[in-house]
Structures are given as C-alpha cells and as structure tokens.
Design a protein that fits this description.
The chain is an all-alpha fold. It has helices at residues 12-20, 31-53, 56-73, 80-105, 122-131, 135-146, 151-158, 162-182. The chain folds into 2 domains: 31-111, Rna Polymerase Sigma Factor, Chain: A (Orthogonal Bundle); 116-188, Winged helix-like DNA-binding domain superfamily/Winged helix DNA-binding domain (Arc Repressor Mutant, subunit A, Orthogonal Bundle), CATH 1.10.10.10. It has 8 helices and no strands. The longest helix is centred in the middle third of the chain and has 26 residues, at 80-105.
Length: 188
C-alpha cells in the first residue's frame, strides 16, 4: 500500500490553522523514504511494544497506530535519529494509553506468556521476570539496554526529566534483580 502525496490530505481545521499562521502545509514524507524508514524501524519498535505489553496482537495493533499517527502528524524532522525517537515516543504514549484503558476496565494489566519453569529456557524466564515489572520500568530498561538510548532520549520518550532517568533506571534494575533472584538467577 502506498502513501503518496495525495493520500494525506489536510482536513479543514488543519487547512484553516495553516492559513491562520500564514504557513503552507508541510509536504508529506515521500513513499520511498517512508518505506525505508519503516523497514528500518518497525521490527525494533514492535519488539519494544511487545516487551512493554507482553501480547503480540496488542503489539501489532499499537505498531499500526504508531505509524498511522506518524504519517498523520507529518513531522518536519529531517534527522533520521530524531524521527526514530519521535516514533518511539509515540509508541510509548500509546502503550501507556493502552494500560490506562485496561486499568479503567479493571482487566488483567499484563498477560505473561505461559511457559515451562525450566531454567534451560532463559528467554522465557526473562520474559516472565520482565512481565512483573511496571510498564514504565520495562520501557526504561528496554530503551537503555536494548535500544541503547541515552538518558536524554529516554527522558524524551517517557516524558520525564533527564535527571530523573538515572534514578528511575537504578530502581528498575534493582527491582529486576530482586525478581531474577526469586527465579534463581542470583549473582554469584
């Protein structure tokens, strides 16, 4: 499916806003650039959302919503790293919105995959341990250790102050260490 210039039209309120501020509307990202950006970003973004939610169907839905919002907002960012962080921030916000909605409905917040308790399968044990963390702790640890984001980038993605990230990461690591110890993965 293509996203050409004709696919994204300004609705009347946006057209009015552009006219009010005397600016012409931004041109949408061309299809080839979007496709290249999507191919580069979609897999790590899906993994991030999946680790936050623990559900592949939810990750699929939120990934689609993230890129829909990205296309709809038509960011005027030229640097690909900034675009990537913009998409991760959007995904983070959508995940938190998802958890707030679940909390409102009083459903189970995180569905950890059902796996055997064998110590041979470290990946599944880590998924279960990760599932016990709060969503923000999962996001902090994932962005810092898997995506390699800086404290500034994490702060931007989570909407917190940069100075808070160091303390929040320390606490999230400490909580994960307690959980891993409970699963029998204590440091020796």
């Amino acid at each position: 499916m293509g996203y050409g210039a004709d696919a994204i039209a300004l609705s009347p309120p946006f057209a009015l806003r552009a006219a009010t501020f005397g600016r012409t509307p931004k041109r949408p990202m061309d299809e080839a650039k979007f496709e290249a950006f999507y191919r580069k970003t979609a897999r790590p973004l899906w993994s991030y959302i999946f680790r936050m939610t623990g559900n592949s169907a939810t990750a699929d839905d939120l990934l689609q919503k993230t890129f829909f919002r990205f296309i709809r907002s038509n960011p005027a960012i030229v640097n690909e790293d900034h675009l990537r962080h913009y998409v991760f921030k959007t995904a983070t916000n959508l995940v938190f919105d998802h958890f707030r909605e679940i909390k409102r409905r009083r459903e189970h917040v995180f569905e950890a995959p059902v796996v055997s308790s064998s110590h041979d399968d470290l990946r599944h044990d880590m998924m279960r341990a990760f599932a016990e963390l709060k969503p923000q702790e999962r996001a902090l640890l994932w962005l810092a250790h898997v995506e390699g984001s800086s404290h500034e980038e994490i702060a931007d993605a989570l909407g917190v102050k940069t100075k808070s990230v160091k303390v929040m990461l320390f606490r999230a690591r400490k909580r994960l260490a307690v959980i891993l110890t409970r699963y029998g993965f204590a440091r020796t």
